[in-house]
Amino acid sequence: MSERSFQTDHIDRAIIKALQKNGRESYKNIARELGVSDGTVRLRVEKMIKNDYLKISASVDPLFFENCIMAQIGINLEEPANKEVMEQISRFKGVQSVNNVTGRYDLVIEVFVDSRSELRQFLIEDLATISGVRGTESFVFLEAINKWADISD
């Protein structure tokens, strides 16, 4: 993985902290809190977004929805994980993240789906289209604290 040249400082981190508390907080209020201009906040946020350091989005509590399922799935591959396989998996409905990890699995992915049948489709049908998947193990979330997810199409 290549090293990125983008650097942050204490003001960037303070801006991020403010946005994590309330992603809709105005730049003017954040600037007032930090003692900088609202233009400084706006420019820094834009720079962090442009450099893929920051993403501002709406997330939901996946366990709020009684019938939805949030799960982590460990995947063993025949060959070491590569970016192409990770990208293919990331495009399936419900995939929140695809992670190349150390330990007993090659990949750990997180999915948020509307039903058991969607989880079944993902595990049995979707992953079957990925060549080199040797096996999977699923961990369905029963409870979580401070867990957020994106709603898929």
Automatic annotation (TrEMBL):
SUPFAM superfamilies: Dimeric alpha+beta barrel (SSF54909), Winged helix' DNA-binding domain (SSF46785)
InterPro entries reported in the protein's UniProt record: AsnC-type_HTH_dom (IPR000485), Dimeric_a/b-barrel (IPR011008), Tscrpt_reg_AsnC-like (IPR019888), Tscrpt_reg_AsnC/Lrp_C (IPR019887), WH-like_DNA-bd_sf (IPR036388), WH_DNA-bd_sf (IPR036390)
Gene Ontology biological-process entries: response to amino acid
Entry's transmembrane regions: none
A Pfam family reported for this protein in Swiss-Prot or TrEMBL: AsnC_trans_reg
Signal peptide interval: none
Keyword terms of this UniProt record: DNA-binding, Transcription, Transcription regulation
Annotated ranges, domain HTH asnC-type: 9-76
GO molecular function terms noted in the UniProt entry: sequence-specific DNA binding
A GO CC annotation given for this chain: cytosol
Domain of life: Bacteria
Name assigned to this protein: Transcriptional regulator, AsnC family
Source organism (scientific name): Desulfoluna spongiiphila
